[in-house]
Structures are given as structure tokens and as C-alpha cells.
């Protein structure tokens, strides 16, 4: 019913918006932080009120979605640091005589069109994805929350300018921007890709940080601290930041998954990482023409990519549920 | 394929109700007005005949121009086209008589002057034409196109118009096979419009071939339409050709399968395993005058210093050609053992095994040679190639893997893709290469001279690596001057041996022409240059 006043429901699809999507300002501001007045699952009386964080941790420990995704992510981190733990060969060792062959002893995933071992390449590809995901998210979170937080706290002209700048960045289509900017870069490391993601990703976090700082600074305890003569830096660091950071963490965790898929997209298009770097996007791109004869070479890296992205997005979902009980 | 057969039958039945059309595939005369679509890539340069030395532009020139000679689509033999006769008594002075009755598509008559003007333009230094070199044997070239400084003459003194349809050519030395080179588009005649309003001509080239350019949008398509009044014997059998630009031959192949495209003249390597089941007899695979090589930037000291020939020879011996042509190309390529092509035939100068052990896969010796030669420059070679045609990514990766395996170093060789052919050519002509790069050669005319001179003669038009060797140049000059064909070929082969000893370029494999087409088309053939014979194709 179009005329009926709908109660506002923050979209659960934040994960799907990615960097390019417009993050609804309302949604971010709706993620306000309130201490749950009582234990959400009502288990037993509380001796003393738990903090937001211990409450969230209490929730997370009991959330199977969190446990599964955390285990997957832990596994990914381990193999991206020590890929040789489970794949001892070199991902660049290829024997054309075995091209497109299927699964066989010692090579469970078979071989790709160049005769490289798909299993080894898939395992080694995790490092790129995890590195890009984690480092880009860190960069985006730090840059975005510092700029957004300061803008939200001080307001005025700086805030207005920053808001317009974020508008400009939101208008840049991600893949197109990547094709233009990254195609002129010849360096074959993860850094240009990370830099590009940070460049285009910070405005999203910046808006969320700004919104939540604005909400937090109107709280009574902040006003009280200000009345007692607390400096701006003390207000920001001691009173506002701890209470404004949760939405940033939620969105950043979910965005991490989308950054991983963005890296794969850019590498698929040939502007992200380039061979001899090993990346799922590169392998998917190389296997695509052979899909009719050697589908396994396409499916394994694609599957790994899908599971990884899903794990991070599920983790972000679980963290959001824990930090913002109102959404449940 | 039961389902497909049934659907086709149903469609035919429906059509029969509407009109008594031919149903039953193939046969029939086809619709002379119907237009076919074909895969293509943007040419590097505007379509001036003397400025086009790459395949995609050449494809169009082949459709919109006819020269004095035309190479037979089946045998490659040079036959008279606009030439009534070309006479010589000494292999140095030629008298050319142009056939009467030819015009350009704007109505202007093709005369002896049309040729002489075009050739003078092509040779002129100030016009900066890439194929100027083709006119180098005409007397007076050194004035029109001096090695340095400005040109001191606008016209070649060796060209004289002696009548409306006759002109004489005086060469600076004997060149017995000169008439056979005249089918190359650089020697095409040009109308006055080319000189009077050059910009307009570039936008919409006017020629004398069976097709006319209708319009061209760079990066998208070029539409060519049949020229109804075309006076030649090889009239177009269809209404025209739409050349569609693809930046990936896999996409073109998918479009062919989906019915969005009629002709693909570059079947992607990844589909070669399926092409017979996909297309049946609508797939053609014929020998062509194409050789793929790896060229080197000899303007870079790393590749021209003494000892580097050992590195190049080592790289050549580190490439397992047979494995790559078998696996990646499903035997549509043959490992190369000289620098020419089997389509020339033994009599024409092809000599199997001329390259000797330098073209054989010997990983241990390869490793040793590269070590002796001072190792790979910078510890790594990057093979630059264009990613949009020819499935180059697959074979460059395979070549690199082969080199890496031979040298026992995972990162000894990496591929360096360039998005489009035109870009790739620009980087080469701007001398931006720092390591080996792909250098395919599709012959211009079926002579051994064409496989050697334009590619390896000092400062020749397609000498992309700027390789230069006095001994080689001298042997080529002597071969050209030789009137006895067998002796000339012997000299060319000696020149080839010089090339081998210096490893001026690594021969990889001889390429077949391969093409697939939709069931709308019939009478599709590839000429020895692996270009579809568009004017013979019937649609419908």
C-alpha cells in the first residue's frame, strides 16, 4: 500500500550495495547505538550491565553463522600466509602436456588450459584476495572514519566541502574508474589495486562515520563532558569514537567481501593484477574460453572466490546483528 | 541434435506457406543483395594504400582496390588485373600498359597517371607512408625519400607517363620479380579525389575495387557495399560486407554461434577442439602464407650487444614448438624450421630445416646458451603481444611456461598483453619495446623476397625490431638483381642463414588460415593470405 506509512526498516542489503552503490544516509544514521537494556536472550539475571562490546561478543559466540564464517576466514588467512601448508608445488609450474586434464592423483582439481595445477593455483590465489580485502578495508576504514568523524564533529564549511567530495566520488562508476585509472599503471603488485579501492571506497565509510558521530555528539554525556571543560580531542577520542565506531566496523566488514570480488573483477578485466601474479580473477579470466572443455579450471577458482566473499559478508552480517540488536 | 533438426524443419514448413523459397540448405544462387557480417579489428592507420602494412587494414584495401596484378585466391599466383601487359627486356626497365575501361567508384577513369601519382605519393618522404620502402627500387627514390634531410624531388624520375594508359618504370637495379609484387595494395592506383580533398578521402576512401566504403565508426564497424558498376571480372556476389570490430576473438566466435555474425576469420584457439562439432563443414582450415615469430628490439642495447645472439638462440631452443602447436592450436599451426612459409613451395624458396637445431626444443642447451650469452637482460623477458586477435595470450603463456621450465625459473618469462592490435602496432612503431614481441607476418605476395626483405633488411618497412646486418642486405640486393629465379632463391636462402646465425627473429610456427561461417553463407574460401575472398561469398 503506497500511502501507508511504513515503519522505517534499514535495509539488510547493505552488503549488496558495495562501493559503487549509494549508501543511504538514513540507513547509516539509523544504526544508532544503544545498550541493550537486558540480555537479549534473557538468560539469567545480570550482575552488572555488560558493555556494548561484551554484549556483542556474547551474542556472536552463540551465532552459528558467525562461527562458520569465522572458521572459513581463519582457514583462508592461514593458507594465505602459508600456502605451502596444503599446496607444496609452485603455482607457476605448468606442463602443457597435461593441459585441460581432469582430476587425478596428486592433482585433485585437475589442470587448466596451460597445464598448470588448478589446486595449487587456487590455494595460492587466496593470498591476493585476502591481502587486497584486508588491507583495502583497513585503508578505507581509517581514511573514511577519520575524515568523516572530523567532518561530523566540527561541521561547518569543512563538512560541507567533504560531503560534496563524497558525492563526487559516489558518482564514479567503480569498474569504469578501475579500467581508466589502473590501465595506466604498470606495477604488478597488489598496491595499485588497494590504492584504487581505498580511493573509491572511503566516501562510503566517511558518510557513515560522519552520521554516527553527529548522533553521538548530541548525547547527554558528551554535552556533560563538554560542560566540564573537556577538550575537543578528549571528547572525540574518549566519548564519541568508542560509541560511533560500531557502524563503521559493520559496514567495513561487509565491504571487505565486496572488495575481494572487486579485485577479482579488475583482474578478470586485465587491469588488476597481471600474470605471473596468482589471483582468482586472473584464473577465472584465463579459464573462461575453455569452459566447454575444461570447466573444472573455471569452477574451482570461482567457487573459492564465492565462498570467500560469502564468508566475509556473513561475518559482517553477524557482527551487525550483534552490534545493533534493533535490527533483529 | 534432434531438437535442432526439428526446429529447422518447422521453420521451413512455415516459410513454404508464405512463399516458395529454397529450403534444404546450401546450393542455390544466393541473394545478390544480401549483406554479410564479418569479424574485424580496427586498422592502425587511415586506409591510405601505401600506409597500411597490417592485416586488418589490408583486408579492406583488398576489397576497395584493384591493382595491376591480383593474386589468385587459390594458388597465390600473380595474374594481370588492371595490367594489359608488363614488358621488359632487361629486368630493369618495364613498360606497363593499363587496361582500358576501368574507373574509380566516383566515375573517374583509371589511367597511367593514377598509378604514377599514387606511387609518387607513396614514396614521398613528406607523406610519411609506411610502405614507402616498396618504391625504393624505382629510380630517383633517393631524391624523393632521402635517408636524411628533406626530399629534393616530388616525383620519382624512374616513372614516366608515356600515354593515357601506358607508363614506364625504370628501376635503380635489376629486380626480376618486380611485376609479381605489383598486386600488393601499396601499388594501387589513386583517384584525383585523394589528392584534391585528402581529408574527405580518408573519411570515406574511394577506390576501384568491387566494394565501396559506406561508413566507418572507429571501434565499432565499417560498412562496405557492393559497387554495382564495378567493371572488373570479380564482381561481388553479395550486397556488401559489414566488418564488425571485436576486441576478443572468443566473443566473435560466440556471436557466430549465436547467429549474430556470419563469418569469423580467426577461430579462437580455445574453441579449436569444438569447432568441428560446432560448425561441421562450415569450418575451413587451409595453409596460408603466415609465419609467427618473436622479434627483438635491436634498438635496445640489451638485445644488440655482442653475445646476445646466444641468448636469442637459447630462447628459441627453450620453446617446445611441437607441444604448443599440438595442444594450444590443435595442429592448425606447424612448427617453423625456417623464416618463410610452406605455401611458397620448395621451388619458391621454402626450405624445411634451414633453422637447424636452433629451432629444436633442447632445454639443457638452451639454458647453457643463455648463460653463456650473459643471461636474460634484467633476469626476465617480457613477451609483448596484442590480446584482441589470434589467441595470442594462450600461446605467449605457453611459450613462457616452456621457457620457464627449460630455465628452471618460474619467473624467467612473462607475457605482457596490449589491449588492441592498433595500440600494439603503435607501440612497436614508436620503438617502445624492451623485450621480445610478437611479430606475425602475413605475406604480401608469394615470393621468398617478401618473407625476408620487408622484415629484416636495414630500415625496411616492417623491420619492427630494426635488425640490421650488412651481409644480409648485400645478399638480398644480389638476389634481387639475379634474373635466374633458382639462383636468386639460393641467394635469399644464404641471407636467411645469416639471419639464423644472428637469430634476428625466432621463428615459431607456420599458421594456417582458419575461418568459420554461418549457414547463411556459401562459397566461402580463404586466399593464401588467409583473408576471406569476400567478393565470392554468396549469402542466403
UniProtKB/TrEMBL annotation, chain A:
Bilayer-spanning residue ranges:
65-86, 130-156, 191-209, 244-262, 298-319
Provide the topology term for how it sits in the membrane: Multi-pass membrane protein
Tell me one Pfam family matched here. Answer: BPD_transp_1
Q: Which superkingdom?
A: Bacteria
The protein's UniProt keywords, in alphabetical order, are:
Cell membrane, Membrane, Transmembrane, Transmembrane helix, Transport
Q: Do the record's keywords include Cytoplasm?
A: no
Q: Which GO terms describe its cellular component?
A: plasma membrane
Give yes or no: UniProt keyword Zinc-finger.
Answer: no
Q: Where in the cell is it found?
A: Cell membrane
Task: Quote the Gene3D superfamilies the UniProt record gives.
Answer: MetI-like (1.10.3720.10)
Q: What is its main location?
A: membrane
GO BP term, pick one: transmembrane transport
- Tell me which PROSITE patterns the record gives: ABC_TM1 (PS50928)
User: PANTHER family annotated for this entry?
Assistant: ABC TRANSPORTER PERMEASE PROTEIN, OLIGOPEPTIDE TRANSPORT SYSTEM PERMEASE PROTEIN APPC
- Which family does the entry's similarity section mention? Belongs to the binding-protein-dependent transport system permease family.
Q: What is this protein called?
A: Peptide ABC transporter permease
